[in-house]
Design a protein that fits this description.
globular; alpha+beta; eight-stranded antiparallel β-sheet; 277 residues
Length: 277
């Protein structure tokens, strides 16, 4: 067993050394994420960008790549584990509120609609759950596009289609919630640009193997309680975001909003309505 762990550690160190000189171009993806779903889950970071952070992208990507390798290695060695979410007593134990997301452009086709329901879990992450509910009460998500969809990994959304609305929230960063449950399939989580930087961007985990995100501080604050089949039909044809891939550039979404997405990425699935149940 010690020999096996030693081998894993050695490989991790070698990979960390390589990543330090890799010149990774973007925080969106440490390396290519489309060779397989498994590689997507272990290699694509979940940072949220702003229009003025382009100079920090390379540093973030290298730091994230190195950190992910180290933490994934630790997880393989069985250092720490987090509890798994359970829907059985969610309402009784976790409280929270139910929100229904009505989705258009499923499979990238206008007119194809569906819905899924999320329950906030303030018992897992009270700060994050409160912000998510506040955003929904302000109709923030109405019209928002799911701009980053990586099958077998995550669906990311939460940049408002109106740059003026987005700008009002961008400066309202949240303190981090400690991670109480693992990043399993169906959990809803805020994306970050580092410690204590959560604002409006979120992602839904599409796989149970995303537990490597736990050690990076991504704290689930809600869960999809129905309609995961709808979530998995969000259009993914544009792939990873720019500049690593051909998908939407987060900085341009922040600056230009839906006018940019509707003209350049018309097939993106989007929320036509988000309402409390």
């Amino acid at each position: 067993m010690m020999k096996a762990i030693g081998t894993v550690t050695l490989l991790a160190i070698q990979a960390m050394q390589a990543s330090a000189f890799s010149g990774v171009p973007s925080f969106h993806s440490a390396v290519g994420v489309h060779s397989s779903a498994a590689r997507s889950a272990s290699q694509a970071p979940l940072f949220a960008s702003t229009p003025d952070d382009a100079d920090a992208n390379d540093a973030l990507s290298r730091r994230d790549a190195t950190f992910k390798i180290a933490t994934t290695t630790a997880a393989m060695a069985g250092v720490t584990s987090f509890s798994s979410p359970s829907n059985a007593n969610a309402e009784e134990e976790g409280g929270g509120k139910l929100l229904e997301f009505t989705v258009n452009n499923l499979d990238g086709e206008e007119g194809k609609t569906g819905s899924f329901v999320v329950r906030t879990r303030p018992d897992w992450a009270p700060i994050g759950a409160e912000r998510f509910e506040a955003l929904a009460e302000a109709s923030f998500f109405d019209g928002c596009r799911a701009f980053r969809v990586l099958p077998g990994f995550i669906v990311q959304f939460g940049i408002n289609g109106d740059p003026n609305v987005q700008a009002k929230w961008r400066s309202q960063s949240l303190r981090d919630d400690p991670v109480k449950v693992t990043n399993s399939r169906g959990t809803l989580v805020f994306a970050t640009a580092g410690p204590n930087t959560r604002t409006t961007q979120l992602f839904i985990n599409l796989a149970d193997r995303n537990s490597f995100l736990d050690k990076q501080g991504f704290s689930p604050m809600g869960e999809v309680v129905s309609g995961m089949d709808v979530v998995e039909r969000f259009y993914s044809g544009y792939g990873e975001g720019a500049p690593s891939g051909k998908g939407p550039n987060q900085g341009l979404i922040q600056a230009k909003g839906n006018s940019y997405l509707e003209s350049a990425y018309p097939k993106l699935s989007y929320f036509s309505k988000v309402s409390f149940k």
